[in-house]
Amino acid sequence: MNYYSLHHKSPKTTFKNAVVEGLAKDRGIYFPENITPLPKDFIANISNYSNHEIAFEAIKQFVGDEIPEDKLKDIISNTLTFDFPVVKVDDNIGTLELFHGPTMAFKDVGAKFMAQCLEYFNHGNEEEVTVLVATSGDTGGAVANGFLGTKGVNVVILYPSGKVSDIQEKQLTTLGQNITALEVDGVFDDCQEMVKTAFLDEDIKRTLTSANSINVARWLPQMFYFFFAYKQLHKEHKDIVFSVPSGNFGNICAGIMAQKLGLPVKHFVASTNVNDTVPNFLKDGVYTPKPSKATISNAMDVGNPSNFIRIRELFNNDLKNLKKGFSSYSFSDSETRETMQKIYEKSGYIADPHGAVGYLGLKKYGLQENEFGVFLETAHPVKFLDVVEETLPVKVEIPEQIKKVINNKKVALKASSYEDLKAYLMS
Ligand SMILES: *Cc1c(COP(=O)(O)O)cnc(C)c1O
C-alpha cells in the first residue's frame, strides 16, 4: 500500500517508510492511497469472526505485502490481549470500554501495534531507531509499555514535571530497559517544542521517529474498536451513532476509516472539552487553531488537532459533505462533572471525565427512536482518580495493572532546555 503526504509536496511512499519516518519530509502527515471496502458478507456475518480475525481483515490492505500475513497475525494477537466490551448505561446508550489494556487507556492498542511494526521493519539493521515522544500523560505510559523490550528501538519520553498524575508518572518512569523518561522543567508545550526541534536538528545523527497518532501504525489499529462495537450491537438492528472524546482526533478518524471499509455507522460525534477548534470550524467554516486550555479531561487539551486534516480528506475536503456524517460539540468542566454525577445516579456507572464528555455529545446530538448511541470510554476512572473521587461519592478500586507499577521506583533524567535533550541524544 502506498501513502501520500497531505501536504502533497513529498513523493508517495510505502507503509514501511510511513511507519519509520512518521511524518513526510514536507511535514505533512501520511494518508493511504486507496481504501477498499470489505466484502458485504464479512460485515453481515461479523459475529462469526474472532476479534483477531476482524482486526486482520480490517488492516491487511493498509499493510499490503510489506509484512507477511503470518507475522501480521502474530502482531495482532500480541496487541489484542484483552476485551472491548460495550456496557449499557441507558436504554439507547452504551459505552465501549477501551481501557482494559495494560496501561488502562485506549492508546495501548496503537502503541503495541506500532512497536511491533517498527521492530519488524528494523530487524537486521545495525542502527537503532529512537522513538521520541512528548506526553501530557496517557501517551507516555502506553508508549513505554508498548515498546518495552522492543529490539532495535530506544524510546525517549518527555513529560512536564509535576503536570502528570502520580499513576501516569509511575507508568512511564519505572520500566527501565529501552525506555528513558526525561522530566522536563516546563509544560507540555515545552516538551512538544523540544521534540520538534530535535527532528529538525541536523547535528543529531540518530534515526528519530515519533509515536503519536500521526504515525499510521498507531492510528490505523484504532479502527478495530468500531468493528468490535458493531459485532456486539448489530443484533439490535438499530442505527449506530458513535461519540468519541477527541483531542488529536486520531481515534474518531480511525472510526471514519472503518465506515469507509463498509462498517454501518449512521453518524459520528466528536466530543471535545473547551478546546473547541473543530466545533467552531463546523459552525463557521474557518479553521483557527489556538493554544490549548487546561481542563479535567486533559488528554483532550489540544488546540490544533493533528488528525483533523485526515478527516477532511475522508470527506473530500467538502464542509457540506462533512457535516452530513459528522458533528462536533464542546463542553465545559462543570457540564462534565454534572454528567459524571448524572450517569452515576442513573445507572451506577463510573465514567471518567473523557467518557462523560462523550456521553454529553450523544445527548446534544439527540438520538432518534431507531438509533443506538455508543460513547467511547477512553480511560479507566482510576487514571483520573482525583477528579473522579472529588466528583462522585465513590472510592475507585485500584486495578491489578496499576498496583503493579505504583510501588516501583521512579527513574527519570532531568531536562530544563533543548540543550539537555540534545546532549542526551548525542551521547
Ligand atoms: C488520547 C486520549 C484521548 C484523545 O484521543 P485522540 O485520538 O487524540 O482524539 C481521549 N481520551 C483519553 C483518555 C486519551 O488518552
Q: Unreliable runs, pLDDT <50, ≥5 residues? A: none
Mean pLDDT level: 95
Helical residues, percent:
40-55%
Amount of beta strand: 15-25%
Kindly identify the CATH topology of the domain at 84-104 and 219-397. Answer: Rossmann fold
Notes on the structure:
This protein is α/β, with parallel strands linked by helices. It has a domain at 84-104 and 219-397: Rossmann fold (3-Layer(aba) Sandwich), CATH 3.40.50.1100. The chain has helices at residues 15-21, 40-44, 51-63, 69-79, 107-122, 138-147, 166-173, 188-200, 216-219, 223-233, 250-260, 277-284, 308-314, 319-325, 333-347, 353-365, 385-391, 400-406, 418-426; strands at residues 2-5, 13-14, 30-32, 86-90, 93-97, 129-134, 153-160, 179-184, 207-209, 239-245, 267-272, 326-330, 371-377, 413-415. A 6-stranded mixed beta sheet has the order 4-5-13-10-11-12. It has a 5-stranded parallel beta sheet with strand order 9-6-7-8-14, with helices on both faces. Strand 6 (129-134), helix 6 (138-147) and strand 7 (153-160) form a beta-alpha-beta unit. Helix 3 packs across helix 4 and helix 15 (333-347) packs across helix 16 (353-365). The protein is globular, with a radius of gyration of 20 Å. The model has no long low-confidence stretch (mean pLDDT 95). The protein binds pyridoxal-5'-phosphate (PLP).
